[in-house]
Amino acid sequence: MCRMKALGIAIFVFFIACSLKAEVVDSSANGFTITNKITVKGTSQHAFDSIVKIGDWWSSAHTYSGNAKNMKIDLKAGGCFCELDGKQQVQHGTVVNINPGKLLRLSAALGPFQEQGVVGAFTFEIADAPEGATVAMTFRAGGYVPQGMDKIAPVVDQVLAEQIGRLKLYIETGKAEHSPQSH
After folding, report:
1. Is 4 exposed, middle or buried (0-12, 13-18, 19+ CB in 10 A)?
2. Does residue 100 contact residue 48 with C-beta atoms inside 8 Å?
3. pTM, full prediction
């Protein structure tokens, strides 16, 4: 039963991710830019407030502790984008720019880039749209990884497409995962 539920969720997230506008905008051996865009029902302020609740929508599979609920963003300049699990603590990034309802930018070397010579800018740009709000999530990273950053960019794109799919669902339903219908 758990496998069927997991498979159903995976298929749903796959279709959500495929319906998003996601792309590796550019890449080279020393860096890349990835942008994912969604349109959501709701106001730009609601979208912004949802983004900040990252522990409610980020996938636990892409955390150090295995539990996204441990992730928090301290919403102030210099604030920590951290994962706190008792003595295990990870600083994923630092808040560098806030414009409520419009912009959140973090200086962040996401995931495995933390142990490499990489710096990154993780930006959420939000705008009003006729059908709700648009959210553009952009991750720009540059530096050195042995295999070349252009080789990693497609994998990072897949991970971030999953996250923005979860964010869209969270903004619109208050839940980051699809609940399978009972039959």
Report:
1. exposed
2. yes
3. 0.85
